[in-house]
Amino acid sequence: MFNKDFYPTPSSVFYMLVEGINAYSLNGNSILEPSAGKGDLVKQIERYVSSIRNVSIYMMENDLELRNILLGLETTATFIGSDFLEDDCYYKPDLIIMNPPFSNGDAHLLRAWDLVNGNGTIRCVLNAQTYDNQCTAKRKLLGSLIDEFGGVTHRGSWFKDAERKTDVECIIVTLTKPKETDDLDLDLSKLKKEGIKELLEDKNNELALKDSLGNKELFYKEAIKHFEECTKAYSRCVKAMNGVIISEYGKPKLEDYLGKGQSGYNAFIKCFNKNSWEGLMNESDFKHLLTAQVQKQFTESFSKQSALMFTKNNMMEMFSTLYANAGNILDSCILEVFDHFTKYHKENRVHVEGWKTNDVYKVNKKVIIPLSFSWSGLDWDCKNKLNDVDRALGYMVGKKVGDFVTVADELQSLIKAKANGTWGFSEFFKVKYYLKGTAHLEFRDILLWERFNCAASQLRGYPLPEATEVERRYKNSQKGLA
């Protein structure tokens, strides 16, 4: 069912992986599981830190079948990418817990070493031969890292009786990366907390005073130099973000993340990544196809998509998925409008004769729908629902919202002109409103009205008998025939 390297992590192995790690010490930390499989190790990590409020868990998985299982899990872990060896990963995890493929565990562990935060830890299940038989350049490099920065803590054939069985002898490797530091290499050995005051009182120690004051000057100059660098870097960062996110509203405020160390850095990556995906969707042509309900569903599923690294491959995959589902999205659009038109007034429905159930009906040529108002005219929710109507009909004639006068546009104009009860004209309807909170819509094109009903009825599962004739007339009208 799954690939040859898939060996889920038994709980006994998990406890060897976290041996000596106090769960409470992980508060404020980020944890990465880069070969998450179907989530066995991720779920064990979640349980281990369940009493800690502030822990971020990230996961990756390259196998498509396993990835689909992961995305369906109820988990607090965030899926951030597919291929651990190839995908860009800008997060800097404090702890990496991993059970990589036995066939190339060396490459996975070296990649983990590159990614883990300074002073961070890696715990890895590894095929023992990867360390014992250092016959390649990668294995030799990994062996030197293990010898210098960690060690082997356990050894055994732990998968003999596991969910997927193998006699491969394994080891647990622990690595701790040296702390990264940007400390200035300046000599303040003679400067104590009260050093300047004491040296001023000691009139015989002029040399020590000069050294201490010289150190003060050095730090002053360094501070100015680095502030200038920060200012330039800030401007460069903002300029780069402008190439990804057009709207000012969608850009992270850098000052919210600067000066907060590694947690601030990871928080910025998370926010910038999410906003970059949202900016891409707002910029694309897909947005005009999504009704309010579909947008809501898409937003719920998009929360997982927006955690993925913002790479060209991931962007192409998302658009491929949207293109593949475009037909279903637009069909949903038609059905939502059909339901919206028929649920408020009996006068909106025309019952279809000859059917066993009384629930089969078409939308009337003239419909009445409720309106809700705000200080500026129609409220936001009402506008969205009205725009859904135009999305559906626009889809049927090859036009999109924004290229014609919509029902919402025309009603706003009528409300502004205080034309209560007066007919106006949108692209597809005669429209009028009443202050009591209703709008009357009448289809301007009889053939479009018939095609809409035929399409909705077909999707509902009761194709109308006139559908073939309606489609013939539509095609003839496109050709200019009677």
Task: Give the helix/strand layout.
Elements (H helix, E strand, L loop, with lengths): L10 H7 L12 E4 L6 H9 L7 E5 L3 H8 L6 E4 L13 E4 L6 H11 L5 E7 H5 L4 H13 E7 L13 E7 L18 H7 L4 H37 L18 H23 L8 H14 L6 H31 L6 E3 L9 E3 L2 E5 L2 E2 L2 E2 L1 H18 L9 H10 L7 E2 L3 E6 L3 E6 L2 H15 L6 H13 L3
Parallel strand pairs: 1-2, 1-4, 2-3, 4-5
Antiparallel strand pairs: 5-7, 6-7, 8-9, 10-15, 11-12, 13-14, 14-15
How would you summarize this macromolecular structure in one to three sentences?
With 482 residues, the chain is an alpha/beta fold.
Q: Encode the helix/strand succession as letters.
A: HEHEHEEHEHHEEHHHHHEEEEEHHEEEHH
Summed up, the helix count is 15
* CATH T-level topology of the domain at 11-176: Rossmann fold
How many β strands by DSSP?
15
What is the annotated CATH architecture of the domain at 11-176?
3-Layer(aba) Sandwich
The low-confidence runs, each spanning 5 or more residues with pLDDT under 50, are: 188-194
**Structural class, from helix and strand content?**
alpha/beta
Q: Which radius of gyration do the C-alpha atoms yield? A: 32 Å
Going by CATH, what is the homologous superfamily of the domain at 11-176? Vaccinia Virus protein VP39
Helix content: 40-55%
Order of strands, main sheet, comes to 3-2-1-4-5-7-6
Proportion of β residues?
Answer: 5-15%
Provide the residue-averaged pLDDT. 84
Name the overall outline.
flat
CATH class of the domain at 11-176: Alpha Beta
- Terminal CA distance reads 58 Å
Please give the largest β-sheet: 7 strands, mixed
